[in-house]
Design goal:
Length: 350
């Protein structure tokens, strides 16, 4: 386990992992445990009351949390994405207004950006509007917003009439904003991921973060297909591989499988660390493709090793196998999705 994460936090996340995945109930106990362990401070700059962590150290911590409870780690990842946008794009007054409260866990922020990256890219924009002198007006649907009903602020991406994009902070109390019931997901149900509907929602200029510009969000280290998502996939893989290794202690035929999965995982994690140091976007997308295959293979190996018992709730093998499928659709840009489809269609799979 990574230094900086108390065992009590891992124990709490593990204890509530099945409930957090299966029930459309906000995992308050797990999130409270994050706060008590100082997790909300991790990525916030020190001048705003945070720990200022970053790079590989932060990825290792995300990985270990995902190994204990993917649902909680997923919620955290969306909150962290919001914090990064505020940190990197917010004006000084906006950063001072939001980041200290986020570091203290007094507010919860999330992102609604998939309409600019992966969601509904084969159709017209789901969210549109206009930018006036004093405000940005939003109309339409913000899809796939994790913790939508719990958020105090949503970092939202909007497509203007001329196809330029704008990033802004959307306060939850704005008039014309409606949060739909949580989507009926097959896994990570406790994330309360939902759509937000906007009808003439007007955001003052003081809440703008970036833009207008064409293709404001690019796939990379902090975007769709970024290393944080790959990191969580490898965290879930680690939990499944650890299970297979434990089973192999009493069942010698599993030893070769356990050793092979473990060696493969170690190679991938070292590769992810190298990519994290280089910041190359194509490498990040390739890493996502490899992480997707790894998490599918590791969790299916765990389910196979568990046999019929693993197909029963609340055995963790069934949860891991379902959660692994999430990575096929969560912030998965076309290059990564295409690589996955090629793998599935390859004769090597026969």
């Amino acid at each position: 386990m990574t230094r900086g994460i108390p065992q009590s936090l891992i124990d709490t996340l593990t204890a509530y992992a099945d409930q957090a995945d299966a029930e459309t109930t906000w995992p308050a106990a797990s999130l409270d445990a994050l706060g008590q362990a100082g997790v909300w401070r991790w990525s916030i700059p020190t001048q705003y009351g945070g720990d200022g962590l970053g790079g590989v150290e932060l990825l290792r911590r995300y990985r270990d949390l995902a190994s204990a409870c993917l649902t909680t780690a997923f919620i955290l990842s969306q909150r962290e994405a919001a914090c990064r946008r505020i940190r990197d794009h917010g004006n000084p007054d906006l950063r001072e207004h939001l980041l200290p409260a986020l570091a203290r866990g007094e507010r919860f922020a999330t992102v609604g950006l998939s309409q600019l990256t992966t969601a509904r890219q084969h159709t017209g924009p789901s969210l549109s509007g206009c930018l006036e002198d004093d405000f940005l007006e939003l109309n339409g649907i913000i899809p796939w917003v994790t913790g939508a009903a719990k958020a105090d602020h949503v970092i939202v991406g909007n497509v203007l009439g001329d196809n330029r994009q704008v990033l802004a902070v959307l306060p939850s109390e704005m008039s014309g904003l409606k949060v739909d019931p949580p989507l009926d997901l097959m896994a990570v149900r406790g994330s309360l991921t939902a759509e937000i509907r906007c009808s003439k929602v007007r955001i003052g200029r003081e809440w703008l973060l970036a833009g207008p510009a064409l293709q404001l969000l690019q796939t990379g280290k902090g975007g769709a297909g970024g290393l944080e998502t790959s990191c969580l996939a490898l965290g879930l893989s680690r939990a499944a591989i650890d299970y297979v290794q434990k089973e192999a202690e009493a069942r010698s035929p599993l030893r070769g499988v356990a050793d092979g999965l473990d060696a493969r995982w170690e190679r991938l994690w070292k590769e992810l660390e190298q990519v994290a140091g280089g910041g190359n976007t194509p490498d990040a997308v390739r890493m996502r493709s490899k992480a997707n295959v790894m998490v599918l293979h590791a969790t299916q190996a765990a389910l196979t090793a568990a046999k019929g018992t693993g197909f029963l709730r609340p055995h963790p093998a069934q949860r891991w196998a379902r959660q692994a499928l999430f990575f096929l659709v969560w912030s998965c840009p076309w290059p990564a999705a295409s690589a996955m489809l090629d793998t599935l269609a390859s004769d090597a799979c026969v």
